[in-house]
Amino acid sequence: MATQNYRSLDCITVTDITALGIALEAADRIHGKLAGIIRDYGTGTPHTWQMICKQVLSPELPFPFHQMMYYGCYKDFGPDPVAWLPDSGSAILTNVGQLLEKRGKEFLGSKYKDPISSFLDFQEFSVSNPEVYWKTILEEMNISFSVPPECILREDTTRPGGHWLPGAHTNPAKNCLCLNEMRTLDDIALMWQDEGDDEVPVKRMTFQELRSAVWLVAYAIETLGLEKGSAIAIDMPMDVNAVVIYLAIILAGYVVVSIADSFAPSEISSRLKISQAKAIFTQDLIIRGDKKLPLYSRVVDAQSPTAIVIPTIGSSFSMKLRDRDISWHSFRERVNGSKEIEFVAVERPVEAFTNILFSSGTTGEPKAIPWTIFTPFKAAADGWCHMDIRKGDIVAWPTNLGWMMGPWLVYASLLNGASMALYNGSPLGSGFAKFVQDAKVTTLGVIPSIVRTWKSTDSTASYDWSAIRCFASTGEASSVDEYLWLMGRAQYKPVIEYCGGTEIGGGFISGSLLQCQSLAAFSTPAMGCSLFILGEDGLPIPPDVPGIGELALGSLMFGASSTLLNADHYDIYFKKMPVWNGKVLRRHGDVFERTARGYYRAHGRADDTMNLGGIKVSSVEIERICNAVDTNILETAAVGVPPPNGGPERLVIAVVFKNSDESPHDLRNLAASFNSALQKKLNPLFKVSNVIPLPSLPRTASNKVMRRILRLQFSQSEQDSKL
């Protein structure tokens, strides 16, 4: 923490404040308030900071002043300074707070005191008493079953994750649409705006309108004549049509194949083949500002099955459709008039698939991860417990159905009776910031790279984000200063850090509105999850002891995967993992640190999969493309290197040349060539930050490249250059 450059609060003068561009009269007033806070709360306590946030700081004040207050307050505090504190009044109004006030003594006995001081006990209860905990949460979320489960969990020595909700039949899309105490027909289900329409009022869709739209598409899907359980892909931006299609596919008893709209044809093709998709929904173009990016043509180049194609502008297409493809208008005309007739949901066993998503493996081929019928309830439960999503909330999270946070957003919003807010365009500019204001978003999800752009361009300035109750962040490691800035945009509402995986259906570690939150840190294992940090001997270090190492997970996790379509699930997640209390632990692959104050911090991947801008990608995929860029390249190694001040990993390519006489100018050209190839063949968002020539790559005795060694060397080199 960069406190050494700041003075403690009691040493700050009016002159220090005016030096940051604050007018003398305002500086005098601020200094007076600060003196009163110091008198009442001391110079450097969490409550001092809490009162500074409430009485002194505002989004209009320059950010260096926010830093002066934060770092001055915590100058002598040590690690993990508290950025946000819960208060008892608001704590008992949260979902978990209300539940604990009603049943805390029943769950925890005499240990129960209040929602804040008993939260960690409740988290431990959720792990040790899954039968009671998950029955309670499913009831709280009003989840209905056509055939109820025989029990919550049936353990099985041949299946480390056990059998959850055995015997149950349900449909998660039906649960999103059915009426209960959390929603009526007139409640708003979706809010949206198109980029460029910033002066037009935010559009809204009620639950009645959403139900009708989903029913119509579900009836139309039936006309395709596909066998129930068939896979149907979606490759398009996450707009209202995409959400309607997603729910309709699942409501009708089919399986969604999630494909990100940024993928090249080869990536689309591999996912269609692995999933054996029988049809695909897409649109002809993606509009981003003044750019028109082709999408349907990429789907065609991927040799897709029958495509249902939505025109991006008006009713005409930018190119002629293939003979077997169907326009969106013609598709819906097949069943025109059916939207007022309720589509009877296809209720399936909970172990049936509902969604096939993809996560990069270390072999280069994407891992195909099926979500089962009950995985959506894990996503929604995380939203209910950790982000406190409830009726009346408006949830925005820039994402895509191709990544797990797309389906997560659908379920975490709709199953909890909240509204989903979608912006059809880039989230980086002032248009999105105005949308957050106009839609009165209460829960805003981010990834750090978006926040970095907002901060550097000041695109959120002048917009009122005071409706926000909390931020949530996932996808990559965050930076303290960037998230201090983010909190300041909404009068210091908390940031709930959230980390998990596609194969988990949500998070394994998070924050909570019932706990103090520290920037760029996690405060608790996710509800129902147990975490283990492995020491150098490969065994878990004692709980509550500080340490750093590879993270392992308790095997009994509601919603977690139990199979993969194109890999051996046991080999990837359980093989050669330690046994703890008679149960084999589950591999995750991230390195985590548990701090002395009980927080957790992420330190990147332990294996050779890296995280670039929230997208997991294997080194092998990148190296395969880079190796072909120049005939003078012998081999490459791709590693993700965290910057010295924290934040998302940067892509560094180590290169061994056949002829080593490459000049710095040549390396710059090579970096540009790498970027061009990666963006064309893999993902347009990837960017090489540095190319480093080496005489050879470090290897193990079995000739495997030791990318971890390179990552350490490059990280240390960056740290040294900063010093």
From TrEMBL:
Domain AMP-binding enzyme C-terminal: residue ranges: 622-704
Domain AMP-dependent synthetase/ligase: 186-553
Organism for this UniProt entry: Forsythia ovata
Top-rank taxon: Eukaryota
Coiled coil: none
Protein name from the UniProt record: Acyl-activating enzyme 17
InterPro entries: AMP-bd_C, AMP-bd_C_sf, AMP-binding_CS, AMP-dep_synth/lig_dom, ANL_N_sf
The keyword Ligase is assigned to this record: no
Keyword flag Disulfide bond: no
Transmembrane domains' residue ranges: 243-264
Biological process per Gene Ontology, one example term: phenylpropanoid metabolic process
PANTHER family tied to this protein: ACYL-ACTIVATING ENZYME 17, PEROXISOMAL-RELATED (PTHR44378)
Keywords: Membrane, Phenylpropanoid metabolism, Transmembrane, Transmembrane helix
Annotated pathway: Phytoalexin biosynthesis; 3,4',5-trihydroxystilbene biosynthesis; 3,4',5-trihydroxystilbene from trans-4-coumarate: step 1/2
